[in-house]
Amino acid sequence: MDELFATTRLEKAVTLDGMSISLLLNAGLSVETDVSTNDAVDGIGLFRTEIPFMMRDRFPSEQEQVICYRRVMAGYVGKPVCMRTLDVGGDKQLPYFPIVEENPFLGWRGIRLTLDHPEIFLVQLKAMLRASQGLDNLSIMLPMVTNLDEVRVARRMLDRAWREVSAETAEQQGEIRYPSLGVMIEVPSLLYLLPELAPLVDFWSVGTNDLTQYLLAVDRNNGRVASVYDAFHPAVLRALQQIIDAADRYGKPVSICGELAGDPIGVLVLLAMGYRRFSMNNSNIMRIKYIVRQSRFDELQKLLHEVLNQQQVGAIKELFSRYLEERG
Ligand code: PEP
Ligand code: MG
């Protein structure tokens, strides 16, 4: 099977009836972003910056961050690289910045923490901007956004970082492009704020791991309730349809960067819903590309409409699984 996937390595991810898909990489270690991967994907859809932070014994300096981010962006010249700002808290701890809480997944996580520590946030934004100089392939994404004010404040911080970095560097090395700014849709409150969120940012990316966790009130890492954690739950699927419909309505580019994008059945359902950009771990890229190339968009769309018309949202997984099996 690996050989079969390998034959599609450099092919485009296009369905049999010509629907073109962007396949992007989820990364966080520079080893995953080396040249053996970059020619098989359309860019990086999620660079988890907390991973390099977690592998150290102190906060990396601005210059150390510049080196790390530059290496990633330079490996993807001409392709988009979406860097997520620090998403620590929850299950991701920094050894040198312990957070002790009763409910870590509902606590001081992601943007909540970085907005409380503007010095950490500002250094990271500046490092990303400096690293992007001359490459122009950076976009920045905010994790765990719950309120619109978080986005407004983060935007002001990015404005400030960009002004300061531009003032320091413009004369010697040319301009630094202002990057596009997006948010992760992973806290359910945003589902009810999409019309107001749309004008504040340039793109959305759906974090199905956390969206599932928070919609279903089930810890994504707790084996005891693993059977309740289900990204194919009708409520999650309806939320995903709502997001893509709103993205179309407000003209917002949207991608999926949770595990569902790298799931063979998940990607077909998402494709049928209208999603076109999928970001996933390196290990899933070839398989998903192969599956996309064996599928027909018109058939997938028809299948989805049939189940939705019959109000059978609970049966979606089974029906798409059968479709997948029939295509080998
Ligand atoms: C997600 O929540 O789906 C996501 C991609 O972010 P992480 O898994 O890093 O929380
Ligand atoms: Mg998440």
From TrEMBL:
Q: What is its main location?
A: cytoplasm
Record carries keyword Flavoprotein:
no
Identify the domain of life. Answer: Bacteria
Q: Does the keyword Transcription apply?
A: no
Keywords tagged on the record: Cytoplasm, Kinase, Magnesium, Metal-binding, Phosphotransferase system, Sugar transport, Transferase, Transport
Where in or outside the cell?
Answer: Cytoplasm
- Sequence similarity: Belongs to the PEP-utilizing enzyme family.
Protein name as catalogued: phosphoenolpyruvate--protein phosphotransferase
